[in-house]
Amino acid sequence: MSSINPHYTFHYSQPDEYHFSHDSVFLSRRIFEHLTELDLANFRGLDICSGSGIVGMDLIFHRRAAGQSVPASFDFMEIQNAYRSHFEENVKRLGPLSTKLNFVNRNYNDLQTPEFSKVYDLIVTNPPYFFTWQGKLSPSEFKNRCRFFIDSDLKNLLLGIAAGLKETGVCYLLLRDLPEHKWNVLEETQKICAGHLDMTVLGDVRGTHFLKLTTLGRLLTKL
């Protein structure tokens, strides 16, 4: 896939220290294409590791531009509170919208608590791709927390998704293999999801696996 974004949405506010990659905007577009014409009016959505809100807001932008329904509410879960001001600015730049957008300054481990149990119809995420033993750390703690699993790990991300999804819910996400570290993320994800989630590989986004996760026995063919 080209690194040029052919589906421009709007100019995002984001920290100078770390800019999102095109993986996020391509992910949003692919999710939009999978959900085309499905009624999301009563959906509650969640963007995990949301940063300044790129994946969730891009999805909402595409649906609004196409005249399609948008979720009633969308939570943006981000551990680094430094993103909050950028998120709030992006809400303004997105413009008038019926969706209630909420910045949730929490660790996604919290999805495994009763507060978030089975509340989300749709979860999207472009999480970190690396563990600290799989790459060179930057002097910037902020940048490291964007790129590496530091505050938690892949297992708790996937278990959090399983806990937060409604029985009829669906999650779309990107996960990347790291062959130089002999890391097969699909094999690892299958092991973690066993007994919790069904995994479907939908293709790739710039060499990164594009996946769909659904609760066991509740595969939604329309999603």
Annotation keywords:
223 residues, Rossmann fold, two-stranded parallel ribbon, 9 strands
Quote the beta fraction.
15-25%
* Spans where pLDDT lies below 50 across 5 or more residues: none
Tell me the CATH superfamily: Vaccinia Virus protein VP39
Class derived from helix and strand content: alpha/beta
Characterization of this structure:
The chain has 223 residues and is α/β, with parallel strands linked by helices. It has a single domain, classed as Vaccinia Virus protein VP39 (Rossmann fold, 3-Layer(aba) Sandwich). Helix content is 29%, strand content 24%. The chain has six helices and nine strands, in the order αβαβαβββαβαβαββ. The strands form two sheets. It has a seven-stranded mixed beta sheet with strand order 3-2-1-4-7-9-8, with helices on both faces. Strand 5 (130-131), helix 4 and strand 6 form a beta-alpha-beta unit. Helix 1 packs across helix 2 (54-65). The mean pLDDT is 86.
Provide the fold topology.
Blueprint lengths: L21 H14 L8 E5 L5 H12 L7 E5 L6 H11 L5 E5 L15 E6 L4 E2 L9 H7 E2 L4 H11 E11 L9 H9 L3 E9 L2 E8 L8
Parallel strand pairs: 1-2, 1-4, 2-3, 4-7, 5-6
Antiparallel strand pairs: 7-9, 8-9
Helix pairs in contact: 1-2
Summarize, please:
With about 220 residues, the protein is an alpha/beta fold. The chain has helices spanning about 20-35, 55-65, 85-95, 140-145, 155-165, 185-195; strands at about 45-50, 75, 100-105, 120-125, 130, 150, 165-175, 195-205, 210-215. It has a single domain, classed as Rossmann fold (3-Layer(aba) Sandwich), CATH 3.40.50.150.
